[in-house]
Every structure is written in C-alpha cells, then in structure tokens.
C-alpha cells in the first residue's frame, strides 16, 4: 500500500510546488501609486489599443504635473501595469545602471522578440550606431543623395500630370534603400531580393509580435514557433537574408585583413562595422547573427525615419508660406556651399526648425525613456519600482504643454530658429537632447541614430520640395488624423497624395 501511496504523494507535492512557483511568477507586482483606467468601465484590450492616450492625458494633468507618478494597464505587457513617472525623475533614470533599469530588456520583452525569432537589441548594435555610424556620417551624405536621385526617379518619373501615391508608398522604399546603403553596403542597397527580405521580416514580425503577446501565456510563448505562420515566415526570410549577406560578410572580412596590411581605403558600412565589432570581442563572425543585427538596425531605422518624414510632410503641406521659405533657403544654402555636406545641411535652419516643431507636436511615441526594472529599484525620494515593472516618462504631452512651451498648441515654424539665434546656436536643432522635449530620450542612452535621422530627412526634403509639387487628393483640406496604437501614434499612412514634377 505504501508503495502505491509514495509516488502519488510525490506527484501531489510536486504539483503543489509548481502551483506555488507559478503563482509567484504570475503575481502582479503592486505599485505604490494611483492606478488609472477608463472611467466608463470599458477596459477592453481594444479600448486600450486605440484610446490609451486619453488616460495618459488625464494622468498627466492630475498627477505628473504635480510631480506624482501613476500606473495604468500596459498593453505591451499585460502581466504588470506600466508606471508613468514625472519629469523630476529624469536625471535618476538616465544615470541609472543598465543592470537595474534597462532599455534593452524593455524593448526585447515588449516585442517578444526572443519568442518569435526576431532581432534583439544589444549593446553591440547600439555601439555600432553611436560610434561607427556617427563617425562616418559625413561620408554617407553623397550615397544617400544618390539613393534619393534614383528612387525618386523610379517612383515619380518625370511628368507634368499629377501622380497619385500615398506618402508611405513613396517614403518606405526610399528610406529602405538609404538604410540598406548605410548599414548593408553598396552590393545590396538596390537589390530587390534584399528589400523583399526586409519588408517580409518587418511585416511578419509586427503580426507575430502582437499575436504571440496577446494569445500566449508567457510560459508557453516558446511553443508559438511551431504553430504561428508569421514566425515560420520570419525564420524563412532570415535564412534568405543570411544567403544574401554571406558574400558581403566575406568581402568585409577580407577588407579588414587588407586594411590591416595597409591595402585599400576599405568599406564604410554597417556590415564592416559589425565584423570589426565581433573581431574586437574575439567572437566568431556568423551570418545568422549579423543578419539579426542588420534586421534590427535596418528595420528600426526605416520605420522611424519613414513615419517622421511623413508627419513632417503633412505639416509642410498645411503651411505653404513655410514651404516657400524652405525652398528659398535650400537654393541660398546650396549656392553658398556648392553642395551638400553635414555642414551645409546644418545651415538649413528654417527647415530644421520646422522639422523640430512638427516633432514637438506629433511625436510618434507618447512616452519615451522606457526602462524595465531588472530588480527592485528605489528612487531617492523613496518611490519603489518592483522588479519586472516598465517605467515611462511623458514625451508627447510634455512637448505640447503650454506651461513648458509658450503657445504650446500653436505650430510655430520658427520657434526653434529664434531660440538658436537668441541663445546657444548649438542647441535646439532637430537632433538636440532637451529636458523639456524627450522624443530622443535623454542622457547616455538617448537614441544614437538621431543624427542620421536628421540628415536623411533633410536630404529627402531637399529632393522633394525642389523637384515636385504635392497636394492632397480631392476632398482633403489638411493633415489627416493620426493612427493611434496604445502609447504610439503614426501619421496616416494610407492618405493619398498627388505629386507633379515642378
């Protein structure tokens, strides 16, 4: 009898221990701050997907402006609320150790990248952008211009008739090729095969990320790769990308050896920088890993630059007087400098101010400075953030706050040009970091690619506004409403525009 009871008792004890452990792992950490939800009682996932901004607005006025944090449902990680904290914690957040408050962990967890086979953000890829890309940026200006010339000529061939095209369909392939030239190199920048890989990876990743995040318990997400069609597509395009990258990687390895022997000028692109990074760390150079690094670099930059440029285009179309000034400035600066370099692009102060004002009012991310607490974290004033909690600082609402920016609801195209003329000329440009505007984050972990974004958008608009007229389709008079998605908003990518050669 005892021989029968023994395994039964052991199984019961094991089950009890597993249940206890599961309860600990799934227990939501308690946040010592007010929790806001929808006051009418409709707190469905769909409501949070499209209307979370209204809770952020209420929390901003009621708590953040008083220096107090609040919590709300986190659509990207339903296991724990998101903590939205006021600006007074900015310095502590940006100086906190990444071992305690981590952006990488926040991004990797919110996108469930590991579970879907997507690219992980690593310190290595961030370092490549911050050091190698920014050091080489002046040399990238000419290839970026060449990409613009070619792609505009294909998508908008010379014509005196109005050509219908939505802005996203123009900007996405253009920016994709610019980023391929920057991060992959001259061999693949105009390859249709490579761009098909990038596009398929991006769209499959978006679909798989949302489906796995919403439909699988965290403990079971590892199983999704066996069932989800988009995850299977991710692995398939990864393999295709590796095949395309292998000869490029081999060429960069040979190039590094040649340079070490004093031969040749060498390649200056993302694959070469990654090869150098792995060599410096004495790690093997594998096509599958470089493919993942490239997927992160190209995917993140293409989406970010495209939505920013489209948003600026809408604002520019609504303000013909600013468009005329920018066109005149482009002609003047080009005549003065004789071409485009980072220095001459920096002289486009009217354009830069317009771009920054558009960014202030239409920041794609409502919150930035995202961090995930890897362990319990206590701020100096005693505010405690439990391990596993994601924290955010307001960006969009801070940028629109009339108590922070005079006439904050008004689009003032020359706001930042005046501030540069009246104060420090090196501040207040599009890629600047400011404590009262946080689209790029702040401190040592601020967006390392913001200077690339700045120069690419300027080159795109130099081509666009000097060679084409643009107008809305019939019946549309001004900027169409943005799409809202949780704590993000993007310009209307489906809005039809009309282009005509000038």
What can be said about the biggest beta sheet? 6 strands, mixed
The named CATH superfamily: Cytochrome P450
Structural class by helix and strand composition: alpha+beta
Please give the CATH architecture.
Orthogonal Bundle
Head-to-tail CA distance between termini: 94 Å
Number of strands: 13
Based on CA atoms alone, the radius of gyration comes out at: 25 Å
What general form does the structure show? Answer: globular
What string gives the helices and strands in order? Answer: HEHEEHEHHHEHHHHHHHHEEEEHHHEEEE
Mean pLDDT over the residues? 91
Low-pLDDT stretches: 1-6, 14-27
Structure overview:
The protein is α+β, with helices and mostly antiparallel strands and 502 residues long. The chain has one domain (35-501): Cytochrome p450 (Orthogonal Bundle). The chain has helices spanning 2-26, 45-62, 90-95, 103-110, 113-116, 123-155, 167-183, 192-215, 229-260, 270-280, 287-317, 320-337, 342-346, 349-361, 396-400, 415-422, 450-467, and strands at residues 35-36, 70-72, 82-84, 101-102, 163-166, 367-373, 377-378, 384-385, 390-394, 468-472, 483-485, 488-490, 496-501. The strands form four sheets. The chain has a six-stranded mixed sheet. It is globular. The termini are far apart. The relative contact order is 0.14. GO terms for molecular function: heme binding; iron ion binding; monooxygenase activity; oxidoreductase activity, acting on paired donors, with incorporation or reduction of molecular oxygen.
């Amino acid at each position: 009898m005892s021989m029968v009871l023994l395994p039964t008792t052991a199984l019961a004890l094991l089950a009890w221990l597993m249940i206890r452990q599961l309860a600990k792992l799934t227990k939501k950490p308690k946040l010592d701050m007010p929790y806001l939800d929808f006051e009418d009682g409709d707190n469905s996932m769909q409501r949070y997907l499209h209307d979370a901004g209204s809770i952020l607005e209420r929390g901003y006025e009621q708590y953040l402006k008083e220096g107090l944090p609040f919590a709300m449902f986190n659509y990207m990680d339903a296991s724990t609320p998101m903590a939205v904290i006021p600006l007074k914690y900015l310095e502590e957040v940006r100086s906190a150790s990444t071992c305690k408050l981590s952006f990488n962990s926040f991004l990797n967890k919110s996108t469930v990248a590991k579970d879907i086979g997507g690219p992980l953000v690593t310190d290595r890829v961030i370092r490549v952008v911050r050091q190698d890309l920014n050091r080489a940026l002046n040399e990238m200006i000419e290839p970026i211009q060449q990409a613009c010339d070619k792609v505009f000529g294909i998508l908008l061939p010379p014509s005196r008739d109005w050509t219908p095209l939505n802005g996203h369909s123009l900007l996405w392939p253009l920016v994709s090729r610019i980023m391929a030239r920057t991060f992959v190199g001259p061999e693949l920048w105009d390859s249709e095969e490579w761009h098909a890989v990038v596009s398929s990876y991006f769209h499959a990743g978006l679909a798989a990320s949302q489906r796995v995040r919403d439909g699988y318990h965290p403990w079971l997400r590892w199983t999704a790769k066996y069932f989800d069609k988009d995850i299977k597509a991710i692995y398939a395009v990864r393999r295709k990308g590796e095949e395309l990258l292998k000869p490029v990687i081999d060429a960069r390895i040979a190039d590094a050896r040649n340079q070490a022997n004093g031969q040749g000028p060498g390649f200056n692109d993302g694959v070469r920088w990654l090869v150098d990074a792995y060599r410096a760390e004495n790690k093997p150079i594998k096509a599958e890993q470089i493919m993942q690094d490239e997927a992160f670099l190209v995917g993140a930059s293409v989406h970010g630059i495209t939505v920013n440029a489209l948003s600026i285009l809408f604002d520019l179309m609504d303000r013909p007087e600013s468009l005329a000034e920018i066109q005149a400035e482009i002609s003047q600066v080009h005549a003065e400098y004789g071409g485009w370099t980072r220095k001459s692009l920096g002289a486009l102060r009217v354009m830069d101010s317009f771009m920054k004002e558009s960014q202030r009012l239409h920041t794609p991310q409502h919150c930035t400075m995202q961090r995930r607490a890897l362990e319990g974290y206590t701020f100096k004033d005693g505010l405690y953030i439990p391990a596993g909690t994601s924290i955010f600082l307001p960006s969009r609402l801070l940028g629109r706050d009339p108590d922070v920016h005079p006439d904050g609801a008004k689009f003032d195209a020359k706001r930042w040009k005046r501030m540069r003329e009246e104060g420090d000329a090196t501040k207040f440009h599009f890629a600047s970091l400011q404590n009262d505007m946080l689209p790029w984050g702040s401190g040592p972990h601020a967006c390392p690619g913001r200077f690339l974004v700045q120069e690419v958008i300027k080159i795109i608009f130099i081509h666009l506004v000097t060679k084409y007229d643009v107008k809305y389709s019939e019946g549309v008079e001004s900027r169409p409403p943005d799409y809202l998605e949780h704590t993000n908003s993007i310009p209307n990518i489906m809005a039809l525009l009309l282009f005509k050669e000038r």
